[in-house]
Amino acid sequence: MSVLRRRIGWAPWLGALVLAGAVAHAQEVGGQVEQVMTPRWAFEVKVGQFEPDLATFEAFYGEKDTGYYAGSFAYRFKPWLDAGAEAGYLHDRGVGILAEQGVPGGGVVYSLLPLHFYVTLRGQFKPDQLFVPYVGVGVTSAYYREEIELQEDRTGWSEAGSFGRLGVELYLNRLDADTAGRLGDGVIKQSYLYLEAQRFTAEKEGNELGGNAIVLGLRFTFGRAIE
User: What's the domain count of the chain?
Assistant: First the structure.
């Protein structure tokens, strides 16, 4: 495992400790946290690049990474705390290697559908805060399918693994003259644009199916507001 992967792996856990301490300290010191009203529900869509830990991925598919897509729902207990689930998807085509000859073989198609369950801490201290950092940790499992020409397909679920996310959001309501940082009047109350780094592990029969992802996403909140 590379130094970069080890750092990404530890980053969400370290970030969670730092952010939790910051939130707790701000709440203890009266007046530092303004009352934040936010809807209970959130929906996210995201797209980016995924770098698998799978040892044979580059040899079979020609690149170290591939496109990644995901969507998620979350329930917010507090403006700074929510729990959610995310489903992702990646799909790539390549050429297999004949083990005995070491030469290109038939075509291969690889699909991975990771499913994450997590909690997220957000460093939100003001209602109209423009940039909101956040960190999330949780558990994951992934369904994979590998179609190899002239061979039987390989499919199955991985063992349970760990999941981490670390990112920062841009509050789009703040940039909208109609809302000026306040909640919207329609079904969608808040909109955010965010950049996020992810890391998850998902082992199957000694093969690591997890990896690192960098994604750009949109988050929308809706429903009854909480404090």
Answer: 1
Q: Is 28 helix (H, G, I), strand (E, B) or coil?
A: helix
Task: Please indicate, yes or no, whether the overall pTM of this predicted structure exceeds 0.90.
Answer: no
Give the domain range for residue 93: 3-29+39-226
Amino acid letter at 107?
G
User: What is 58-96 written as a DSSP string?
Assistant: HHHHSSS-EEEEEEEEEEEEETTEEEEEEEEEEEEEEEE
Judge whether 82 and 119 are in contact, CB under 8 Å.
yes
How many helical (H) and strand (E) elements, i.e. helices and strands, does the chain have?
2, 11
Contacts of 155 (CB under 8 A, 6+ apart): 143, 144, 145, 146
User: What is the residue-level pLDDT of the chain in tens, covering all 227 positions?
Assistant: 344 444 445 555 555 455 544 444 444 444 444 566 688 999 999 999 999 998 878 877 888 899 999 999 999 999 899 999 999 999 998 876 555 555 446 678 899 999 999 999 999 888 888 999 999 999 999 999 988 777 778 889 999 999 999 999 999 988 876 655 567 677 888 899 999 999 999 998 888 999 999 999 999 999 887 76
Distance separating alpha carbons of residues 211 and 11, to the nearest angstrom: 14
> Is position 210 within any domain?
yes
Q: Is residue 34 part of a domain?
A: no
Q: Which residue has the tokens 């929906």?
A: 43
For residue 77, the domain's CATH number is 2.40.160.20
- CB-side neighbour CA atoms (13 Å) of 128: 11
